[in-house]
Amino acid sequence: MAKRVPFVCGNWKMHHGVEATRKQVRALVEGIGRLQGKVEVAVAPVATTLFAACEVARGSPVKIAAQNVHWAEKGAFTGEWSVAHLVELGVTHAICGHSERRALFGDDDTTVPKRVRAALDGGLVPIACVGESLKEREESRTAQVVGRQTEAILEIVKPDEVERLVLAYEPVWAIGTGKNATPTQAQEVHAQIRALLAKRFGAKAELVRLQYGGSVKPDNAAELLREPDVDGALVGGASLEAPSLLAIGEGGMQRA
Ligand code: PGA
After folding, report:
1. Among 24, 29, 44, 83, which residue is least crowded by beta carbons within 10 Å?
2. Any catalytic annotation for residue 73?
3. What is the pLDDT of residues 14-33, one digit of tens each?
4. Which residue among 40, 100, 132, 170 is the active-site one?
5. CATH assignment of 7-253?
6. Phi, psi of 209 (to 5 degrees)
């Protein structure tokens, strides 16, 4: 099996303002210590704080991600920002198609791939999110829904760039609920995603990192990241305080 560097990313959603962002990014930079070179660590702060976050993280191993990105280069798109705007700041990653964007802001299998495409074209690492709702799981449609969302994304990825892609499996029922998927549930879906990757990209599927997201905490990270296809975590609530995100990163050390 190819060696994939474990990757944990905090998603700060609409929380920390500039001051708190500076403080928490600084704490990540100062605390990353023994994770350095073994586990990749990123955070996705509120858009208005990205400039400050990049300033504090500059020159350190801590990466800064955007929570969203528009696919156009520029133009009349009030309230949006482009890949170029992010790159200019020093942002290196962009979350695309988070379930909150899908549920509340109209993101779907047409727009999410466009965001991923733009990120890849502009040199950002896309963290593309997929995941089923509670109703879909209860109706035994998890494989179908995750399969459809994943295929829509993979369709626009070229073989020579697939290893830059990060896919995050985030079951909607596990997000912010305190009820994480069990390691077995997570692995089952991650294996399905890996198989879809393999069908399209052959051996290169082994190079793609698959994050799990949904109520990841320091005390469940290690068991989730022990699963063969769980290569990292996308973390909401438990990422807001730097020591907690770093403790989750420790859970990835066993894979490093
Ligand atoms: P949570 O959020 O860790 O608070 O469940 C995960 C996410 O939305 O990425």
Report:
1. 29
2. no
3. 999 999 999 999 999 999 99
4. 170
5. 3.20.20.70
6. -85, 135
> What is the distance between the alpha carbons of residues 151 and 164, in angstroms, rounded to a whole number?
17
Residues 98-146: pLDDT tens digits?
999 999 999 999 999 999 999 999 999 999 999 999 999 999 999 999 9
Phi, psi dihedrals of residue 4, rounded to the nearest 5°: -105, 130
Domain map (residue ranges) of the chain: 7-253
100: annotated active-site residue: no
Strand blocks (E) in the chain: 7-11, 40-44, 63-66, 93-96, 125-130, 166-169, 209-213, 232-235
Q: Residue 233 is encoded by which pair of tokens?
A: 């975590």
CA distance 47 to 16: 10
Q: Which residues of 26-58 are buried (b: 16+ CB within 10 A; e: fewer)?
A: bbbbebbeebeeebbbbbbbbbebbbbbbebbe
Ligand 1 binding site (Cβ under 6 Å of any ligand atom): 11, 170, 175-176, 213-216, 234-238
Q: Report pLDDT digits (tens) over 171-189.
A: 999 999 999 999 999 999 9
